[in-house]
Amino acid sequence: MHSPLPLYAPDQLRALEARGIASCGGDAFVLMARAGLAAWQCVLKHWPRARRILVVCGPGNNGGDGYVLARHALASGLTVQVLRLDAHMPGTPLARQAHDAFIAEGGQVASFDAEFGGADLLVDAVFGIGLSRAPDDEVSALIDAMNRHPAPVLALDVPSGIDARSGHAPGLAVVADRTLQFIARHRGLRTGVALDHAGDLQLASLDLPATVFDGIAPAAVALRADALPGFFPLRARDSHKGRNGHVLCIGGDHGSGGAILLAAEAALRSGAGLLSVATRATHVPALLARRPEAMVHAVDDAEQLVPLLARAGVVAIGPGLGQGEWGRSLLDLVLANDAPRVVDADALNLLASSAQGLRQCDVATPHPGEAARLLGVTTGEVQRDRFAAAQALQARLGCAVVLKGAGTIIASADRAPAVICAGNPGMAVGGMGDVLTGCIAALLAQGMAAGDAASAGALLHAVAGDAAARDDGERGLLPSDLSPWLRRLANPMRR
Fold first, then answer.
1. How distant, in Å, are the alpha carbons of 297, 351, 376, 464 from that of 347?
2. Same domain, 119 and 257
3. 298, 322 in Cβ contact below 8 A?
4. What is the pLDDT of residues 365-406, one digit of tens each?
5. Is residue 495 part of a domain?
6. Which of 231, 291, 358, 494 has its CA 20 to 30 A from that of 204?
7. Does one domain contain both 138 and 231?
8. Total domains, the chain
9. What is the pLDDT of residue 86?
10. Whether residues 293 and 388 fall in one domain
11. Residue 131: per-residue pLDDT
12. Distance separating alpha carbons of residues 228 and 3, to the nearest angstrom
């Protein structure tokens, strides 16, 4: 069982760096020397057969780290080429010190002019955590040349062109095979576009004492598969169905019966003790045939929903709900009810047209398009800063929010945002969100608080997707393929 990994924003990393320098007696070059050595050790570990190394250095301290690495490689007898733009002469005292030490060892620095020579490994030391704007034309040409080169790429701290705060790439960005982060993990590398650029992530703590982190709370936490058992303790031996909660899934307008079936099945496989479904009459036979454990009810109007709501402990609404009068009338009744709710899909689209919010005990699960409608912005704006969007949604709705996508983000009022570090591109298929809705609703019904249910449900869903894709691949993965894995993964402590 593992704890969540703390993640930090650039301003926090600068504060940590300043404390780290103080712990080194105030000599900032000691820290740079450690970073460059850690980068060299990373090269030796992951590319031991590399004999020609090309290091691309920028003007700041990230470039200084590159010069230190280059000096170690040169001293080891490797062929080392250091390139930079003419405009990227070392611009900080530390970068100049690292550059001069490399030159003193016999190193040479060349100017970049459109192409790279042969190399077994490229090192990206152009920009660090400070970049938040699109690279200019010269830098873009440099990045493009790196991306076209056949050799693998090691990025130091952050792939150049990626915003370490948000994970957005405002312009062209380096596509790295591995990124070596210094001091602490960057939150921006765990979500969005950054996932296609950072490659494998590694941390070099630079031997700093734990006290440098005192009083600096993480900007986010990363939840990996190994955190899953912490959410699922063994059940009491005298457990019964009533103790495990009663979920009511509402949705499945004409032509959308599959969506509510997927949510219902996921709720059962995630441990709900009782499961009711309110849907159109035409879907009842198919639902009962597929999942006889569900109590399926034909609901043609809001009045028929009233007794079902009275018995439910948790309500999941949205999968296949539609945005017509039927769906709107059911949502209005649910919003007036006291039971905790998971609100998804068309229920969110209906909410977007009003100023109504939800409650702290509820969970909303928008994808970027639904998030954009709720916030009154474009999908592109949501994706440019997924952390800010998730937190804005939480403020707008007043509940725990699961902003779906690559690097799903959970925002709740009482804790730092969580990022799900699991899942795969095969899960980008219709119906996956319905499964997630059922997972979260089941965990709410079993007594989890909204933030915990959102985090555990999103992690369970993502890890199940990875397990389902492991044998047969990502392409062609279906939401229903997750069902048997939900049960297995929700019982990690079974004996």
1. 19, 6, 16, 25
2. no
3. no
4. 999 999 999 999 999 999 999 999 999 999 999 999 999 999
5. no
6. 231
7. no
8. 2
9. 95
10. yes
11. 80
12. 10
Please tell me whether residues 205 and 248 are part of one structural domain.
no
CATH of the domain at 66: 3.40.50.10260
pLDDT digits (tens, 9 = 90+) for 169-214: 999 999 999 999 999 999 999 999 999 999 999 999 999 999 999 9
Q: What tokens does 417 get?
A: 């945002």
Contact 364, 400 (CB under 8 A): yes
Choose the final residue of a domain: 218, 236, 264.
218
- Examine the fold and report which residue of 155, 187, 218 is the final residue of a domain before the chain moves on: 218
Co-location of 201 and 262 in the same domain: no
Contact 159, 174 (CB under 8 A): yes
Q: Do both 236 and 214 map to the same domain? A: no
Give residue 247's pLDDT. 98
First and final CA of the chain: distance in angstroms?
A: 16
* Of 85, 90, 84, nearest in space to 59 by CA: 90
Q: Are residues 203 and 252 in the same domain?
A: no
Q: Strand order in 121-125's β-sheet? A: 109-111, 79-84, 52-57, 121-125, 153-156, 178-182, 200-204
As a 3-state breakdown, the chain gives helix, strand, coil percent values, each rounded to 5, of 45, 15, 40
Token pair 């969506």 is found at 259
For residues 225-252, give the mean pLDDT.
90
Residues in the chain: 495
Considering the domain architecture, whether residues 424 and 309 belong to the same structural domain is answered as yes
- Over 80: is that where the pLDDT of 25 sits? yes
Residue percentage of the chain with pLDDT more than 90? 93
**Three-state SS for 350?**
helix
- Mean pLDDT lowest for which of 25-39, 77-91, 230-244? 230-244
Q: Predicted confidence band at 258 (pLDDT cuts at 50, 70, 90)?
A: very high
Q: Which two tokens stand for residue 293?
A: 């454990």
How is residue 329 written in tokens?
Answer: 């009338």
Beta carbons within 8 Å of 348's beta carbon, 6+ residues apart: 318, 364, 365, 366, 370, 373, 374
Predicted confidence (pLDDT) per residue in 96-125, tens digit: 999 999 999 999 999 998 778 899 999 999
Residue 411 has pLDDT above 50, yes or no: yes
Beta pairing, strands 363-364 & 418-420: unpaired
Q: Which domain holds residue 15?
A: 5-218
Question: 3-state SS string over 36-104?
Answer: HHHHHHHHHHHCCCCCEEEEEECCCHHHHHHHHHHHHHHHCCCEEEEEECHHHCCCCHHHHHHHHHHHH
